[in-house]
Amino acid sequence: MTDRYVVIGNPVGHSKSPWIHAEFARATGEDIEYGRLEPAPEGFDAAVDAFRTSGGRGANVTLPFKQAAFRYCAELSARARAAEAVNTLVLDRAAVYGDNTDGIGLVRDLQNNLGCALEGRRVLLLGAGGAAQGVVQPMLDAAVAALVVINRTAARAQALAARFPRIRGGGYDLLDDAVFDLVVNATAAGLVGELPPIPAQVFARGALAYDMVYGRDTPFLAFAREHGVRASDGTGMLVEQAAESFFIWRGMRPPTRAILSALRGG
Ligand code: NAP
What does the alpha-carbon distance between residue 153 and residue 189 come to, in Å, rounded to a whole number? Predict the structure, then answer.
């Protein structure tokens, strides 16, 4: 019988996950079906209960439900605990298990696809929402030399930084003379055509600018390129986080290069 998975979000119609997982299934020969679920904002638990009761094996979770998914799980991975958010649910065990693959997805895209080694690098993370929270522990695990978290609401960045050793957090005013090898934009600013207020001097020579927003040219990416800085959108993170979810569910790692290149229109 075909094993069933879904992505749960609201809205979720735009999600590329069904297409990506169908490609993974084709490449690996796994017999899975992957659809979409769009519960009302208060309807997350009931929707997952119903999907699980009907035999659903697992789910990805996107905005605005990653914290609801975190609360829903009876068991959590260390990285989901560190992120306080879940984007991958395993529903075919006695106890529902939650993981977070966003951070490792970003790290794999940086290291494997973009050739950006993280060990010993100075990293600036813009934003302190769900996506930023998921990235902190995997960045520390990758042995970055320094990690600074900056957010529009400075208190959120300070609170996030305080949960981890060795990282600093605050508002954009902290950036006056700081320099970084990697600047990750984990804010939603690009979705509304805005640029987080960063000075151009944050980019060290040879730095990489990475925007988690995918499929569009954001003001952040344009700003980086204008200052001669290499820039990448978040398409690779999207594909790599999906691959890690697939691995958690199916026990095998799907190839990602061809899918990434197809999504980029290459
Ligand atoms: P979220 O929890 O809603 O957090 C949004 C963050 O963006 C907050 O830190 C917020 O600051 C900041 N922000 C929003 N508008 C801003 C603006 N105009 N200027 C400066 N900062 C602004 O969202 P999220 O889950 O963290 O997601 C953030 C982005 O990452 C989204 O665009 C999402 O699509 C993307 N993402 C991509 C992937 C991928 O696989 N590529 C995975 C996850 C997320 P305040 O705290 O001050 O409101």
Answer: 13
CB 142 within 8 A of CB 118: yes
> Does pLDDT of 3 surpass 80?
yes
Task: Report the C-alpha gap between 108 and 111 in whole angstroms.
Answer: 5
What pLDDT, on a 0 to 100 scale, did the predictor assign at position 264? 86
Instruction: Please state whether the peptide bond connecting residue 64 to the residue before it is cis, i.e. omega within 30 degrees of 0.
Output: yes
Q: Which secondary-structure segment (H or E) carries 105?
A: helix 102-108
Question: How many angstroms separate the alpha carbon of residue 213 from the centre of ligand 1?
Answer: 8
| Pocket probe mutation, ligand 1, options 15, 110, 187, 218, max atoms within 8 Å of Cβ | 187
pLDDT at 266 over 80: no
Q: Ligand 1 atom closest to Cα of 192? A: 18
The whole-number average pLDDT for the span 247-266 is: 94
Looking at the annotation, which residues are catalytic? 66
| 192 C-alpha to ligand 1 centroid (Å) | 11
Residue 142 has pLDDT above 80, yes or no: yes
* 79 touches 179 (CB < 8 A): no
The DSSP output letter for 193 is T
Return the half-sphere exposure (C-beta side, CA atoms, 13 A cut-off) of residue 1.
Answer: 6
Give me the pLDDT at residue 166, please: 87
- What is the rounded distance in angstroms from the CA atom of residue 29 to the CA atom of residue 86? 27
Tell me how far the alpha carbon of residue 197 lies from the centroid of ligand 1, in angstroms: 15
Rounded to 5°, the CA angle 186-188-193 comes to: 125
